[in-house]
Amino acid sequence: MHPSARRATSLVVLVILLALAFVASLVFGSRWLGPGAVWHAITADNGSDADVIVRSLRAPRSVVAVLIGLCLGVAGALMQGHTRNALAEPGIFGVSSGAAFAVVLGLQVGLVESVASTVWVALVGALIATYGVQRLASRGSGASPVGLALTGAAVAAMLGAFTSAIVLLDNNTLDGYRFWAVGSVSGRGLDVAVQVLPFAVIGLTLAAFNARDLDLLSLGDDVAAGLGLSIRRARLVGLVAIGLLTAAGVAACGPIGFLGLLGGHLARQVFGARNTWLIPAAGVIGAIALLLADLIGRLVGGAGEVQAGVILGVVGAPLFVLVVRRRAVVL
């Protein structure tokens, strides 16, 4: 089979798996609902308990999970492409921590009053953190893959400490912060999806345009420039896309870690380094992963539920160690 045909087939399979995961998210939970009950809730809502569960609880959080999983999966793949580092991910590189710290500051001074304002504040924090990590890691002989990861981890730890200090000293900020600090789609309705949708759409559009630039950049900056690519413009577009996508994810669901690492790494195993295929595949994998993490959290939590961020941490941490042990750090 021709490589393009194989990649197209693989992408279709991923989309089908996403659809199945979405249906499973509607069917399973603390209360099992049959496919017939789910279909009835979607097509002929009459206010029954099953209809309320599907339309008011499971469907909205599933839509949010797909949207945010798509954003963070694509953000992870973009970061890995621009840094040429298979360890790159918004959570690991301090981008999510920067967004979270900015949101906490915004809560304290009264700038954050809605999901939309949260996205704008988170965007500023994400962009500053992204730029800061790259500048710090590139001092001296340049930013090695492991150097970027270590710098990102150090920045994330520092920003996490600052965030903890602020929320522990201010009860009002703590109340606002606890809503999404763990990383979860629980309680997120369609209103959240609608408010972050413009930022997600712009970020995903920029990522789509940036995919071809990344393929050229993978040849080396000198070769890419010789082929007519503006290196500065390509980097800037990628930076803004990463910031928008991460900010949308943090604003909607909190700082969910390892989703970008998971999406980008698994997509690379199937689609190779061709970013025009890898980036959309990473987004679909991210959406599937967040849907399944949320579903598993509902199934294992008994009367309550385990947050999706916790489930992804349990899966993502071993994956991070595996990537490091295999030395798969250079794309």
From TrEMBL:
Keywords, in A-Z order: Cell membrane, Membrane, Transmembrane, Transmembrane helix, Transport
Q: Which domain of life is it from?
A: Bacteria
Q: Name one Pfam family in it.
A: FecCD
InterPro entries reported in the protein's UniProt record? ABC_BtuC-like (IPR037294), ABC_transptr_permease_BtuC (IPR000522)
Q: Does the entry feature the keyword Ligase, yes or no?
A: no
Q: Name one GO cellular component term.
A: plasma membrane
- What is this protein identified as? Iron ABC transporter permease
